[in-house]
Amino acid sequence: MAEATEPLVRARVQRGVATLTLDSPRNRNALSARLRTELAARLADAVADDDVRAVLLTGTGPAFCAGADLKEVAAEHAGAPVDRSAPGMAELFSAVMDAPKPVVAKLNGPARAGGIGLVAAADIAVAPASATFAFSEVRIGVVPALISVPVALRMHDRQLARYFLTGETFDAAAAAAAGLVTVAAPDDEVDAVADGILDGLRQAAPAALARTKALLAAADHRDRAAAFAEMAEVSRAFFAGADAAEGRAAFFEKRPPRWAL
């Protein structure tokens, strides 16, 4: 287990690509306050570095990202101190979406809930065929509110409705068909596929690359701030509710929640 002083996000720059690696495998790279803070800082560093052409976001351990840190959420609702300086989910997703340099997500395993928000916020996403996905919020008594903003920009309406409403698990091929990920590659080809995409970005003129990303984002940017603000209120209300408390208890106790039939 990593010591508390070790970084939860590791950064490395090589041939114009800043690789940001989520390195908190003990909790499946959950988006704790500290991990969000470090990821936002390392992303800002990459954006400010003139030698960086693109950003690669990946993870260590058995999962890409499990979403919100439920233990931290439970502690907060029990009255534990909260790091108010940490960026919220909306701020983190916006930082990825608004970065003037392309962000490529290379999944190393499953993504859940808020972790899928990171996948959707990235410009390009490559997943191994063995990766799985689930919007598990409804099964623990909350709503996939904040992540709905980036995810709805990627996924086709029918699949979005199915997976948001059921919380069921789906595979990388289904994620690609739904528009959530760009490519579902055989596990042993993920690195090669991602490298090919990064090589393509390296061939692009930096100013043209930034302007093209801005062009692609223009259609959704006008209303995104308002959407995140509205969804933040929905998220807060549900996370503070009785169903969310029961959902967390059932999750930690490894039992069905009281509403399960």
UniProtKB/TrEMBL annotation:
<dbReference type="InterPro" id="IPR014748">
    <property type="entry name" value="Enoyl-CoA_hydra_C"/>
</dbReference>
<protein>
    <submittedName>
        <fullName>Enoyl-CoA hydratase</fullName>
    </submittedName>
</protein>
<dbReference type="Pfam" id="PF00378">
    <property type="entry name" value="ECH_1"/>
</dbReference>
<dbReference type="InterPro" id="IPR051683">
    <property type="entry name" value="Enoyl-CoA_Hydratase/Isomerase"/>
</dbReference>
<dbReference type="GO" id="GO:0003824">
    <property type="term" value="F:catalytic activity"/>
</dbReference>
<dbReference type="InterPro" id="IPR001753">
    <property type="entry name" value="Enoyl-CoA_hydra/iso"/>
</dbReference>
<dbReference type="InterPro" id="IPR029045">
    <property type="entry name" value="ClpP/crotonase-like_dom_sf"/>
</dbReference>
<comment type="similarity">
    <text>Belongs to the enoyl-CoA hydratase/isomerase family.</text>
</comment>
